[in-house]
Q: What sequence folds into this?
């Protein structure tokens, strides 16, 4: 079909914007951690909970969300989720205490959990398999911008506009409205039939096939460990740099570097991976780099933070985009939605427990050093497991 010959830019452009919009409200939390802690009279662990609620809902809803995308189509499933994100994001701007903010964040998180599993499915039905990594890099870049920009500008630029955390949440709801409108306008129905065309018995067979794929479970564990590291790092590096002596504004800017450098990484690394015809080195090498980065974070001064965040961002972006493309490469088209939902549901458990453990240890010790030691172990474990997964790349054939 013509749609399969090249990457449809309107589709992936919409996915980029939606990826940005779904992460921006979440990523506004870490730089405001000290503001929320003071105004709401809560602990570091409670702020961690507020930050991780979207990931909790992602864990709970990824499999149902993947099945929904398979049944009613990506456009409707992600579009409904996007509307819920808008509602929850706007309601957060009306919160008056921690309980109401928590409740409204659960609403936002529900939409988050429905949208995310639709994006890998989008790649599988609109993009040729050999370009899956490149396409995954496009919507992953949107997610990276959705984290980097709020971390960098929430405190120095957005918060002063209203001098309230509620007003800040209102402002960060604007991108969700824009992205949702453009999604419904630009994204068309899939060129392939969905599993709604299949009888329920066939859908059950496909689901069992996914559950029985041992390699897919290894990918899910890799994503769990990856997200344990990534979201602990994103959630607590502003506080880490503040502890090193940086002002809150400077700490947030330095911390945001680790996400800014993800953007070129998720565009360039898939192309390099496909050119070389290998995937595994793009998971295990970054994992051992991140172990080194975590150790260095214990001892660095503020000026060295720029270098460390750059290394962490490149390694994180490389590993994440490679892992996210694996289900598209490993599984048949008709099971990608289910498979992606499975690995996302399991994988983002790491994104929940990592920041919560970091916040709890911070409350107990007044330092993030112990959390960084945990990240060293997680990184080594990720690299070791990556060596055991099958190679899904195809080495380029020598020219005659």
A:
């Amino acid at each position: 079909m013509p749609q399969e010959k090249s990457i449809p830019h309107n589709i992936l452009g919409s996915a980029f914007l939606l990826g940005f919009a779904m992460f921006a409200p979440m990523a506004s939390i870490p730089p405001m951690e000290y503001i929320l802690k003071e105004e709401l009279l809560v602990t570091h662990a409670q702020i961690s909970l507020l930050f991780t609620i979207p990931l909790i809902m992602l864990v709970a809803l990824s499999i149902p969300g993947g099945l929904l995308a398979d049944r009613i189509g990506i456009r409707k499933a992600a579009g409904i989720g996007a509307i819920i994100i808008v509602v929850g994001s706007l309601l957060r701007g009306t919160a008056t205490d921690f309980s109401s903010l928590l409740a409204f964040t659960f609403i936002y998180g529900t939409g988050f959990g429905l949208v995310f599993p639709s994006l890998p499915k989008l790649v599988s039905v609109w993009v040729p398999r050999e370009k899956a990594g490149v396409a995954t890099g496009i919507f992953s870049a949107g997610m990276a911008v959705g984290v980097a920009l709020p971390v960098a500008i929430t405190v120095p630029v957005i918060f002063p506009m209203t001098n309230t955390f509620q007003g800040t949440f209102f402002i960060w709801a604007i991108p969700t409205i824009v992205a949702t409108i453009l999604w419904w306008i630009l994204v068309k129905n899939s060129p392939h039939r969905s599993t709604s065309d299949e009888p329920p018995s066939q859908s059950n067979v496909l689901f069992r096939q996914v559950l029985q794929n041992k390699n897919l479970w290894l990918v899910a564990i890799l994503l769990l460990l990856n997200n344990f590291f990534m979201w602990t790092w994103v959630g607590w590096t502003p506080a880490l740099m503040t502890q090193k002596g940086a002002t809150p504004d400077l700490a947030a800017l330095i911390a945001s570097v680790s996400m800014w450098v993800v953007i070129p990484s998720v565009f360039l690394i898939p192309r390099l991976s496909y050119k070389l015809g290998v995937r595994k080195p793009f998971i295990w090498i970054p994992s051992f780099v991140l172990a080194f980065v975590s150790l260095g974070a214990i001892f660095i001064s503020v000026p060295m933070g720029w270098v460390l965040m750059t290394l962490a961002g490149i390694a994180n972006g490389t590993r994440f985009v490679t892992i996210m493309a694996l289900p598209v490469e490993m599984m048949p088209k008709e099971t990608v939605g289910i498979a992606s939902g499975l690995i996302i549901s399991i994988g983002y458990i790491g994104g929940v427990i990592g920041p919560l453990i970091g916040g709890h240890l911070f409350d107990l010790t007044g330092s993030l050093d112990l959390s960084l030691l945990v990240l060293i172990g997680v990184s080594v474990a990720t690299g070791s497991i990556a060596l055991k997964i099958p190679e899904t790349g195809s080495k380029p054939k020598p020219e005659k």
